[in-house]
Amino acid sequence: MELFDTPANPCPPGAHIVRLRARDGALLRAAYWRPEAKPLGTVVIVQGRSEFIEKYYELIGELLGRNYFVVAFDWRGQGLSPRLLPNPAKGHVVHSTDYRHDLDALVEQVLGPDAPRPWFALAHSMGAAALFDHAAARDGSPFARVAATAPMLGLYGFPGSDYARLLASAFVAAGLSRAFIPGGGSKMLCEKRFEGNILSADRARFERTARIVAACPRLRIGEPTVGWVHAAYQLMDRLAEPGYAERIKVPVLMLAAGDERLVSTPAVENLAKRLKNALCVVLPGARHEILMERAEIRAKFWAAFDAFIPGEQLLRPS
Q1: Does 148 fall in a domain?
Q2: How far from each other are the two terminal CA atoms of the chain, in whole angstroms?
Q3: Could you tell me if residue 298 is inside a domain?
Q4: Residue 115 — φ and ψ, nearest 5°?
Q5: Is 285 left (phi over 0), alpha (psi -120 to 50) or beta?
Q6: Could you tell me if 12 and 59 are in contact, meaning their C-beta atoms sit under 8 angstroms apart?
Q7: pTM of this structure
Q8: The predicted structure's pLDDT at residue 318
Q9: Which residues have CB under 8 Å from 39's CB, separation 6+?
Q10: 28 close to 78: Cβ distance less than 8 angstroms
């Protein structure tokens, strides 16, 4: 396994690449970086659907500059982790609970042996939902604090959500879980026109992601499969069940996008109200990929992040 870089998107120096094996045999790519100064702790970047480590080089550099030990990984079936289907452009997962195995492998094989405490997580979209599910299912989280951008807890303004859920279940029952969603294909959202996109209002960062994929096509993940959508609904439904997400005790900061057109910001606000130790901040003007947004929006993100992590009480000597 390797890390891919380009002159316009260089890999932060000092990367250590790790090959993980989950309990069910799935292989994952992970990497970590040590800051030059004594680390304040470890930040784990938990990516969203179809993302990859290389997309977060800018963020990794910023976290290293804040003196954090940084860990990043690719979920099963995406990035440069081995694909799950013969068609490498299909975004697929068999069960939503499979992501728990990925996180367990990361904790056991990277964080435990190498990462200085306290451990923090910075999760995006699907990754945030999977992280919440892991914390609820394990009745505890290995992280001291969690920051989440645009968590995938519901879909944006989707009136046919119940119908789509039933349709996905029917397709899976009919043995079509590996098929693209109707109308889906191998093109990523970042490879489409910048004008009118739902991900970011920052042209440079939006187009940077497309250039990374063009330079390393193995990173490309197109539309999800029916099976992935079915699993995503199971994940969101579990977190919506009364009493389930309430098991999450770790302090959580949720940053939602004010111009969100992919996931449901009201669902994010609702979960924050249900949890005893959570706060939701809506960033006006931000689109779904808050960390890939314009400088003024990212500055608001960093102000919130720096106030929340590492947390003064976690740094006090015992």
Answers
A1: yes
A2: 40
A3: yes
A4: -95, 130
A5: left
A6: no
A7: 0.95
A8: 42
A9: 67, 68, 69, 116
A10: no
HSE, side-chain direction, 13 A CA sphere, residue 124:
25
Distance from C-alpha of 165 to C-alpha of 151, rounded to nearest angstrom: 19
Query: Can you name the residues that pair with 31 across neighbouring β-strands?
Result: 17, 72
* CATH number of domain containing 230: 3.40.50.1820
Q: Record the tokens describing residue 88, joined without a space.
A: 């490498």
Whether the CB-CB separation of 298 and 291 falls below 8 Å is answered with yes
Task: Report if residue 6 sits inside a domain.
Answer: no
What phi and psi, each to the nearest 5 degrees, are found at residue 297?
Answer: -75, -40
- What single-letter amino acid sits at 250? V
Q: Are 123 and 46 in contact (CB under 8 A)?
A: yes
Give domain status of residue 4, yes or no: no
Question: Token pair for residue 296?
Answer: 């003024």
- Sheet bearing 69-73, strands edge to edge: 16-21, 27-33, 69-73, 42-46, 119-124, 145-149, 252-257, 278-283
**In the structure encoding, which two tokens stand for residue 203, read together?**
């042209």
- Cα–Cα nearest to 304, from 260, 229, 252: 252
Domain span including residue 96: 16-315
Rounded Cα distance between 162 and 279, Å, is 28
**How far, CA to CA in Å, does 130 sit from each of 49, 78, 202, 296?**
10, 15, 27, 28
Tell me the longest C-alpha to C-alpha distance in the chain.
58
The identity of residue 17, as a single letter, is: I
Per-residue pLDDT tens over the stretch 210-238: 999 999 999 999 999 999 999 999 999 99
Q: State the residue for tokens 């299909």.
A: 90
Query: Closest Cα to residue 25, out of 80, 91, 89, 102?
Result: 102
Per residue in 108-128, pLDDT tens?
Answer: 999 999 899 999 999 999 999
| Residue in 122, 93, 111 with CA at minimum distance from that of residue 305 | 122
Report yes or no: 44 and 17 within 8 Å, Cβ to Cβ. Answer: no
User: How sure is the predictor about 312, in pLDDT bands with cuts at 50, 70 and 90?
Assistant: low
**Domain total for the chain?**
1
pLDDT at position 157 = 66
